[in-house]
Amino acid sequence: MNTSRALRLVPAIAVIALLAWPALLRADEPSDVLRDVWTRIQQIAPGQDPSPNRPHPQAVQTSADAPSIPLRDLSHPISLERSIRTAASVPPAELRLAIPNGQARLGDFSIGSDQAVTGDLLVLEGTADVYGRLNGNLVSWGGDIVLHPGAVIDGDVLALAGQVRLEGGEVTGEVRTLSAPAAEQSPAAPTSPMRHIFRSLAGTTGVFLTLLLAGFGLVLFGKAPLEVTSDTVRSSFSRAFIVGLLGQILVLPTFGMLVVGLVLTVAGILLIPFVVIVFALLLVAGIVGGALAVAHAMGESITRRQMAQGRALSPNSYRYLMVGLACIFAPWLVWTLFGWAPVAGELMLGAAILISWLLASVGFGAALLSRGGLKEQFAGRFIPPEMLTDEFLWATPRFGVPAAKRPDSSSTRPGIRPPDGTR
Amino acid sequence: MRLPLVFAILVAPATTASAVHGQTLREYSSTRQDHGESRLSTTIEYAGGTLSLVPAPSGILYALRLTYDADRFAPVAQYDPSVPQLTLGTETLPRTGGVRVSHRGTPPAATIALGTRADLDLDIELGAAEATLELGGIRVSRIKVQTGASKTVVHFAEANPIRCSGAEFSAGAAELIVTGLGYSRCGEVDFNGGVGKVTLDFSGRWSGQMHLDAGIAVGELVLRLPRRAGIKLELDKFLASFAPAGLVRSADGRTWVSAGFENAPQQLVVELETAFGGVTVEWID
Description:
Distance between the termini of chain A: 98 Å
Strand content of chain A: 5-15%
Helix content of chain B: under 10%
Low-confidence stretches of chain B: 3-21, 97-103
Strand order of the largest sheet of chain B: 7-8-10-12-11-9
Structural class of chain A: alpha/beta
Order of helices and strands of chain B: HEEEEEEEEEEEHEEEEEEEE
Oligomer: heterodimer
Distance between the termini of chain B: 77 Å
Strand content of chain B: over 45%
Largest sheet of chain A: 6 strands, mixed
Structural class of chain B: mainly beta
Mean pLDDT of chain B: 84
């Protein structure tokens, strides 16, 4: 195939891909995709009527094992529609229905002006024209109900995926209509694995990318606080978790006390809106920043371990964040792929939530301990950064025999007396 | 070779997300013809979205037309002819699934028409809804409106054909505007507000004395009063502002009276309790 012929095929492939994409999302089986694509092609083809042909009018047969569709109570049209949809999902020749105290018809049906029908009536895929009297409820599915002048329905009327046209007549009960769903999706229908995976993957990826971008922004504009919080996570993990836990418990009381305190000062009432906003922003910053610090700490540990094993890697905060976030999202990825499975799905979800909460608590605690990355007390940094010069480190060994021989920093140096002359 | 791969990784989730965010929009309607019912106890429960309530054309007892997202809401239309009791509105479906990506979707939109021949006992409960309730011409024997975080406008465009035993309004963090209360023919009006802006407009005509019992915590209450009516306002406030706008303070220090209150053919007695709110009086000519 030469290049120009191949290029000519591109638009056709694009159109087919465009048609197949929604079907792919809905389908459980590959055959569903093909059928759906073919239906769409038929729908857009010129001269084609997208609506299916109405079936030949006939009574729906009943049998002992036929599904029963009671029409006495029409106040729950959604569940009734579901029952009818399930029962009518077979070819017309195989359709069997049992209507307690009533009958079912397939295709158009009319009650003449001199006729009186007693019992509930279900009309499938046809228009129900009523000129006479019906002593019972009337339900149509996939067709309209038309009440002509002089018609009387002593009961309720329900049109599923159709309309009720009141051209005259009387209905003693309720007239209801429920349109067909705009997308074939029932609220109670079980979600297919493919759909679950696509939907969950979209959500998980979205959250991951959002956090990643936020993390990159933090590295760009607030690297030092991030590193201090990250070091606090690594050096004081248990302490950070306990502080995070306490922080969660005390957030609301603190907020309440703050507001009450401002109210009591009278003048502070004006500050309440600003305090609310600032408090909320600080809380979000603490939680998100803390979570990113945890990711940074995890990524740093993993990267350094890999480097210690001889792998040539570039140790930088961007890598740390990406690796750490990937680790945090690993349980969510497992849930994304297998969460559709009954019981196991719920367990995976629970585990993912628990792990995320644990890490978020640690991060929040670390953010509190380090005062948002400003305080290094719990970050395991015993030497002030300004002293981390080559000269200082060379002249002042911190480890080994020379360090052990160094005098205690709290004691005074030999030969130097305190100014007050004591000693 | 790496760049297209990175691009595909970044773009794929976005396209997937936009495709799976579909919603199941449905339309539901429920209508009942008027068969000479003389009274109807009506409850409207509306979780969120927009709601319009209007008088129904003759021959209709009630009608509901609702467009809603079937993944999030379910229509409610129940009628018990023995009471008779009517319940209309929507209910929020419990959420299913785990991580739920941003899925706001289209909020429900409903129009409810209520018949003008039966006496209606109205109980309206609104969640995060934006509602316009036009009650002019409807026979309201009693009305209770509860709003959550919403904007609600209640309007009496014309006089209530029957006397109303009471009107009760309560608003959370909501904006509530009630106009034409003079047409409501409700002897007793109760209002309870949390955090929000509330306007109670007493335009319209009534005979005798109307009584308003209002309480607002942290919010703004605007009282729009007809200049021709006699007004007596008893105010119990704590750290709240009040603009009397021409009302004269009596000797007890907490009652404010308009000139000629005793002889006015239309009288309105207001008992107002507020903590941190602001109360403003505006006059209608």
